[in-house]
C-alpha cells in the first residue's frame, strides 16, 4: 500500500506559516502531501517553501500541467483534504461551491474526509455569514474545527486563532484512521472531565492523585475528530489544549463539580474521566503550616467531597442524556466495577486496573466497559485513543 495522500490547502491568513509545521508532521509521519495554496496564501509563505517541504509541485491555479487535469485529479486521489488555515473567504467559497482556483476545484472533486481549520479575527468568525457557511459545511459532512481563543494578528485577543499545528495533525491522523466512517458525533455536545483534583491544605501543599489526564484528553480529542462539540473540564494536567475543544480549567473537586454542572445542561453525554478526590482537608490554612519544635504535627481531618458522578447520573437535565463513569481499581477490579456501576447509576462504566506503573501517566490502557444494560466490552491493552474510540462507539450506538 502506498503512502496516504493528503492535500494540504492553505488559504491567505496570517497563520499560513503555521501550516509549515503541520506539513512537516504529515510528511515525517509517512504521508504524501500535496500543498495547494491560494494566491493570497503565497503573500504569506512562498511556493518554494511548500514545494521544498512537501517534495511535490505547487500551483494555485488550474492552468498548470493541464494534461494531468489537476483540478480534478488532486481531489479525486486524496485520502484526506485539510485546509489550514481556512480563511473566512475560503469557507464562503467552499460552502457555496465556487471553483475559481485549484484549491476550490479540489474541494469539489474530493470524496474523502475534509477538515477545515479556520483562523480569522473574532468579528469575522462570529459574523452570521461565516457561521452559516460553517454550519453548511458541517451539515455536508466536513469537519470544521472551532478556532482557539488567544492572541490574534496585531494586539487583539479572542476566538479566531489557529489551533496548535501539532493538535491539527492529531485531528488529521484520527480522521484518516477512521477512513470514510465520517463525523458520527456531529451535532452532539459532549462534556469530558480529565486529570486529577488537588485539595489544598495550605498555600503550598495539597492532597492529589496520580492521574495524568491523558485518557480524558484522548476522549476529548477523539470526540472532536468525530465531529462533536467538546467541553473539556481539566484538573491539573498541564497538557496542551486539543484542537477545536473548549477547555475549562479547575483545581479542586468542588470547582470541578461547578464546572460540570454548568456545562451539563445541554450536553448529550457527560464522561467523568477525571480522578476526583473523595475527601478534602476540613480546614485550609491561609499561611504555610510550619514545624514547631517539640510538637507533633496536627492531624489532618478530612471531610467528604460531593459525589459528582452519582449526582449527575441522578439529576439529569435531559432524560436522554448519557453518563459515563470511570472506575480505577487496584483489586477485585470487575466485581468492584459492577458494584460501582449499580451504585452510581451511570449508563457506562469504564473499569481499569491502576497501580504505580499501570495506566496513570502511560500512553496505553486496558479496560472493560460495563453497560447498565448488562453489556461488557473488553478493550485490549493499547493506545488510550483506542479505548476512547470504543467508548464513543458505545455512546454513538446508544444515542442512535
Ligand atoms: C495581513 C493580513 C492578514 C490576514 N489574515 C487573515 C486571516 O487570518 N483570516 C482571514 O480569514 N483572512 C485574513 N486576511 C484576509 C484574506 O487574506 C483575504 O480575505 C483574501 O481574499 C483571502 O483569500 P483566499 O481565501 O483565497 O486565501 C488577511 C489579510 C491580510 C492583509
Provide tags for this entry:
Rossmann fold, binds flavin mononucleotide, 19 strands, 5-stranded parallel sheet, 400 residues, alpha/beta
CATH topology value of the largest domain: Rossmann fold
Q: Can you count the beta strands?
A: 19
End-to-end Cα distance: 35 Å
Mean pLDDT: 94
The CATH homologous superfamily of the largest domain is named: CoaB-like
User: Multimeric state of these chains?
Assistant: single chain
Low-confidence stretches: none
Task: Please render the helix and strand layout as text.
Layout: E1 5-10, H1 18-28, E2 32-37, H2 41-44, H3 47-54, H4 70-77, E3 80-86, H5 88-96, H6 102-109, E4 114-118, H7 122-126, H8 128-139, E5 143-144, E6 148-151, E7 157-161, H9 165-177, E8 189-195, E9 199-202, E10 205-207, H10 214-225, E11 229-235, E12 245-250, H11 253-263, E13 269-272, E14 279-281, E15 302-304, H12 308-314, E16 322-329, H13 333-344, E17 348-353, E18 364-371, E19 376-383, H14 384-399
Helix pairs in contact: 1-3, 1-9, 4-6, 5-8, 9-10, 10-14
Bound molecules: flavin mononucleotide (FMN).
Amino acid at each position: 500500500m502506498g503512502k496516504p495522500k493528503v492535500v494540504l490547502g492553505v488559504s491567505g491568513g496570517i497563520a499560513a506559516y503555521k501550516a509549515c509545521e503541520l506539513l512537516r508532521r504529515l510528511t515525517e509521519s509517512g504521508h504524501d502531501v500535496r500543498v495547494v495554496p491560494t494566491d493570497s496564501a503565497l503573500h504569506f509563505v512562498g511556493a518554494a517553501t511548500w514545494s521544498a517541504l512537501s517534495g511535490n509541485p505547487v500551483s494555485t491555479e488550474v492552468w498548470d500541467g493541464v494534461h494531468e487535469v489537476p483540478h480534478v485529479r488532486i481531489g479525486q486521489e486524496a485520502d484526506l483534504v485539510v485546509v489550514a488555515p481556512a480563511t473566512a473567504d475560503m469557507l464562503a467559497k467552499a460552502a457555496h461551491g465556487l471553483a475559481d482556483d485549484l484549491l476550490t476545484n479540489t474541494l469539489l472533486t474530493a470524496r474523502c474526509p475534509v477538515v477545515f481549520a479556520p483562523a480569522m479575527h473574532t468579528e469575522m468568525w462570529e459574523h452570521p455569514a461565516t457561521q452559516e457557511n460553517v454550519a453548511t459545511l458541517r451539515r455536508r459532512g466536513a469537519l470544521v474545527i472551532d478556532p482557539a481563543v488567544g492572541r490574534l494578528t496585531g494586539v487583539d485577543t479572542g476566538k479566531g486563532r489557529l489551533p496548535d499545528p501539532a493538535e491539527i495533525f492529531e485531528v488529521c491522523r484520527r480522521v484518516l484512521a477512521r477512513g470514510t466512517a465520517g463525523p458520527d458525533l456531529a451535532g452532539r455536545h459532549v462534556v469530558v472531565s480529565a486529570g486529577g483534583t488537588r485539595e489544598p491544605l495550605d498555600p503550598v501543599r495539597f492532597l492529589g492523585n496520580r492521574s495524568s489526564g491523558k485518557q480524558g484528553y484522548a476522549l476529548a480529542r477523539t470526540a472532536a475528530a468525530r465531529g462533536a462539540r467538546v467541553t473539556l473540564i481539566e484538573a491539573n494536567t498541564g497538557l496542551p489544549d486539543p484542537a477545536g475543544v473548549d477547555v475549562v480549567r479547575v483545581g479542586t473537586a468542588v470547582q470541578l463539580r461547578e464546572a460540570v454542572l454548568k456545562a451539563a445542561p445541554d450536553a448529550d453525554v457527560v464522561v467523568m474521566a477525571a480522578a476526583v478526590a473523595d475527601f478534602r482537608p476540613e480546614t485550609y490554612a491561609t499561611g504555610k503550616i510550619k514545624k514547631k519544635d517539640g510538637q507533633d504535627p496536627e492531624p489532618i481531618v478530612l471531610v467528604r467531597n460531593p459525589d459528582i458522578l452519582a449526582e449527575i447520573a441522578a439529576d439529569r437535565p435531559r432524560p436522554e442524556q448519557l453518563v459515563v463513569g470511570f472506575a480505577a481499581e487496584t483489586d477485585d477490579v470487575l466485581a468492584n466495577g459492577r458494584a460501582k456501576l449499580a451504585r452510581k447509576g451511570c449508563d457506562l462504566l469504564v473499569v481499569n486496573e491502576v497501580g504505580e506503573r499501570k495506566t496513570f501517566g502511560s500512553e496505553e490502557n486496558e479496560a472493560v466497559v460495563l453497560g447498565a444494560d448488562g453489556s461488557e466490552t473488553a478493550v485490549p491493552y493499547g493506545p488510550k485513543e483506542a479505548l476512547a474510540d470504543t467508548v464513543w462507539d458505545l455512546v454513538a450506538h446508544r444515542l442512535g
